[in-house]
């Protein structure tokens, strides 16, 4: 019976191909670490001293960051809502089952790709340069970021809908607006809401970092405490950020699970 089985080559028997791939990856990682001098100036003593200082938070500073924490949440909510509103018409224009013109779809999708290519930190820096330091810069950056993300998610959801209701309303003489309101939106509303909540989670986390660049919120206090070497207060800011992010993520996950 054994003689009927195909004989494995030594190269396959010892998994030399997989071993060769692993060695190449390790060589690339080591070479990249050497070229970038990763960890060359890392000080374990300084790292340990930093953690010792942060292990003794100045809890009296917590009252000073309640307002900025609320401002951070407000920035995330406003930016997500504005981004969602703007993204809906662009999602409709990019959906292949709504817009039959390939030229229009490709132009809209190319524009959306350009928007998504801009990182949120770059957007924050641009808005800070335009409107100055404050929450307005953060709202603007989060709006553009949310618009780019949700537009893609929305038009992909629209392309998966059942076209039966669209054909029925069109045959009955409904105009484009009526088709969108009564045939398309009811089918994608749950998906839209789920994507909105998912984007809100990301924006809450992002808004804390954007403030570090001067875009408002609690991130500004993170930058101030670090620059003043008040690591005991930095620890309070980080703990507050963690609490907010965990709460928002938990609430968002429960809501998205309820939507199915």
Automatic annotation (TrEMBL):
GO CC terms of this entry: plasma membrane
Residue ranges of domain ABC transmembrane type-1 in the record: 69-252
Any idea where this protein resides? Cell membrane
Tell me the domain of life. Answer: Bacteria
Principal localization?
membrane
- Is Membrane tagged as a keyword? yes
Q: Which family does it belong to?
A: Belongs to the binding-protein-dependent transport system permease family.
**Protein's name in the database:** Phosphonate transport system permease protein
- Identify the gene encoding this protein: phnE
